[in-house]
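Let's practice the habit of predicting before peeking. Look at the sequence and jot down your guess about where helices and strands might fall. Then scroll down.
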Amino acid sequence: MKTTLPVIVTILCYLLQPVCLNAEPNGESFFQQYQNLLDNSEQLTPAQRLHKLFEISWEHGLYESPTFATQLGRSEYDHRWGELSLEATEREKKATYLQKGILDTIDFEALGKEDQLNHKLFAYQLKQSLESYRYPPEFDSMPVNYMRSFTQTIPYAISIMPTRKLSDFDNILTRLEGIPKLLDQARTVMEHYSALGVTPAKNTLVNFPEEIRSIATDDLENNPLWLPFKNLPESIEGQAREELIERGRSAIIETANPAFLAFVEYLENTYIPKCRVEIGWSALPDGKEWYASRVRAHTTTNRTPEEVHQIGLSEVRRIKAKMAIVIEQTGFKGTREEFLEFLRTDPQFYFDQAEDLMTAYRAICKRIDPELTKLFGNLPRLPYGVVEVPDYMAKSQTTAYYQQGSLKAGRPGNFYANTYDLKSRPKFEMEALSLHEAVPGHHLQIAIAQELDGLPKFRKNLWITAYGEGWGLYSESLGEEIGFYQDPYSKFGQLSYEMWRAVRLVVDTGMHALGWSRQDAIDYFKENSGLTEKNITVEVDRYISWPGQALAYKTGELKIKELRRYATEQLGEDFDVREFHDQVLGHGLVPLDVLDSIIKSWVAEKQNDHS
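Done guessing? Here is the structure:
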């Protein structure tokens, strides 16, 4: 569960990206730089042209995505939000076509092995973008839906901004004062696509007005946008300090809050009433084909929704059989359904205080940390923390997620745990969740990618859901290898989480391709998983809003396990799990077919070394 962007975080940042391509930070527009590279094809070697393309497109991307630049520790664009407009979408398309035009002129066979992989991955990104242009772009046409709302993106962007000197606060204030324009742009785009019949499902938006009101509060101590002003650096003092506090108060109370409340009124009175009642993506224009393309994109395979559905049914049967064994080990007397109800309702499985839940999560992570050397030869330098999901977004947020950090920005990665409604946060799931979101899951995976030497920057920050979330789910299974899941209830929690991802294959495709209702999906979840009803409804509404994304987890995990079996069988006594994991994580995030070739090449090289 990335948000983590996987995690979700990267996606949240990209929501606010601009595509203002007319500025000239290097004395010429980015379009002109692309054109120059295209026109002067004879003056550089293929490798030089490839890396020049990477350089231009990376800097262009940071200029286009100022909140993502902030997240990475680049502060030159901290004063800007992104542009949400139809014109921006068209300019983005133009840039993509120019990048593809340049890439197509580069002689692939003349590149070295590593640059050939760089070429493939850059081409993969372009292909995904070009495929998405066949349909209304998801993140532009739906800037507000169940998984992405301004209650998440705006406070997060403000919270990660530097706060060391006065100019940092000038940037923060400029962004706060730019909130009305950002919301107006979103409204214009939403109206355009609403007129075309492209909207989120109505039921998934019901909590948004309340969430937005919760951040548009004049009680500054409880307003997440006030966070930078709570702990002003000691270097800002006297009149400058007083003026800064007053400017911050005015920017929030007199500018941002009225804009948020006006947006709430628009949502309640205009937008939400016009949203579609049908939950399936197939109800949208070209929805059946659109969903099939999302399945291919999120799984990095050519599987159809029907094929994915059948894999899900098979996995549900397999995991259900393993669950039956564990239930017997607990000594529980009763049916499987009674056992699941017992897990959902018995007080022994739940904390009464949020601080106790957080203390338990931190203790689990501290137990995991020293065991990592048994599984990995290479570990990242970047540390991570375990923190609570902010109150203003907790109600509709998932159980947990990860937000990547940055060595450059001096910000650790963070594993966010949700303490809202403690009776929906069972203790027996906590080990699996920690292994997925923190280590050896998303933190290890993303931090290692960021710290890899010799890779183009786009590869260090590439997010491919099937690989990223596949690794997260695979990481849950590693707990048993380092001494976790000793308690049968905790082992059942791990199986329940694996079942959760298998059920996703069934209900996501069921709702979007096979005509299932929302209640059908909830009932199937309740029948097959140990998740609480609160978590089940949150998950189902997530799949309604984000079609295909949930299919990536099981798809990627199954592939990684397949490759581990292959390497174990081929190498025998020469197989070293630490080397295997270093190979899986040592190239950044890649599509599953590329991961397949990486592992099989590694196996072949080891076999040759011993022949």
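How did you do? Residues 350-462 form one domain.
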